[in-house]
Amino acid sequence: MELxxxxxxxxLLLGLFLSFEVFVTIRNxxxxxxxxxxxxxxxxxxIVQGKLPYRDFGLEYPxxxxxxxxxxQLLCQxxxxxFRGFVVFFAIQNLxxxxxxxxxxxxxxxxxxxxxxxxEIRYIYWILWGIxxxxxxxxxxxxxxxxxxxxxYCIANRFPFAAGIWLTVGIFAKLYPLVFLSPIVLFYxxxxxxxxxxxFLGGIAMLTLLIFFGMYxxxxxxxxxxxxxxxxxxxxxxxxxxxxLTLLYKIQGIIPKTIANYGAIHLVxxxxxxxxxxxxxxxxxxxxxxxxxxxxxxxxxxxxxxxTLLVAMGSTLLAFVIFNKVFSPQYLIWLLPIxxxxxxxxxxxxxxxxxxxxxxxxx
Length: 363
Prior knowledge:
The protein is mainly α. Helix content is 73%, strand content 3%. It starts with a helix and ends with a helix.
C-alpha cells in the first residue's frame, strides 16, 4: 500500500515537473535552435545536395554523428516542411529512441536481476528520462545512449562480439564511450572470460578497420579532422574546471572575460594555456589511476557481477565529465543507461542534478 502511494505521488510530482518543462522548453527553444540548425544544414548537405562530410564540407563531429540526422531530413524533404518540420521529425525520432531505451533497459536488467527489480529499474529510467526531455528531444545524444545500453545488454547476455560493435558505433558517434573500454576489458579479464575478451576486442577492431577503410576511400584522409577541432577548443564556462575558475573570479569581484566560438562560451583568462595543458594530462592520468582502482576492486571478487561493472562504467564516465574542458547539459543523456542500476544514494544525487540542470541551464 505504501509503495503504491509512493508511486502515485512520484507520478504526480513528475507530471507537475513535466508541465514546468513544457514552459522551460518553449522559453529556451531559441537556445536549442543553434544545434538544430546545424543538424539541419549538415544533413541537408548529404540528403539534398549529395555532398560527403569531410570531403565536400567540414564536420566537427565523428562520422556516425550524422546518422540520427538523416531520417528527419529525409522526411522533411518528402513533406517539404523546411526547418520546422525537421525539428518535429527529429523530436519524434528521439521520443522513439527514448522509449526504446526503456524497453532495452528492462530486458538488460532481466538478464541478471529478478523481474520485480528489473521493473523498478525501468520505472526509475522513465522518471529520469521524463526530467531530461527538454534536452533529450533536441540532441542526437540519445542515439549514443542507446548504443551504450546495447553494449551493456550484449555483455549481460554474453554477446561480446556485438558488444564490441556497439561500443565502436558509440565511439564514432560521440567519442566519450571510449572511456568504457578499460572497465569492460578488466571485467572480462578478471572473470577469466578470455574468449569473450578476444571476441569483444575483435568486434571493435573489425568495425574500426571497416570505418577507416570506407572513410579513407570515400572522403580521403581528412575525416579525423574532428579530433583537431576538439583540441582547438578552450575551457568551456560550464565545465567543472571552468565553473571553479569563474567562481574564484566572482569571489574576488572580477567578471572573467569570455569568448563565444566553436558553438560554446569559453574562458579567456590569464593562465588559460596552463590550465588546458594540465587538463590534457589530467584525465589520462586520472583514467589510469581509476583503472587501477577498478582492477583492485574487481580482483577482490571471485566473479565480478554486472552491477559492479556498471558502477565502474559510471565512475569512468563521471571522471571524464569532471576532467573534460568541454561540458554540456547533455551529460544527462550520457548517464541515462547507467544511473538506474546504481545505489539509491547515487540515484538521488543525480536525480537532483538532473532537476537543477533543467531549471538552471537546460540549453
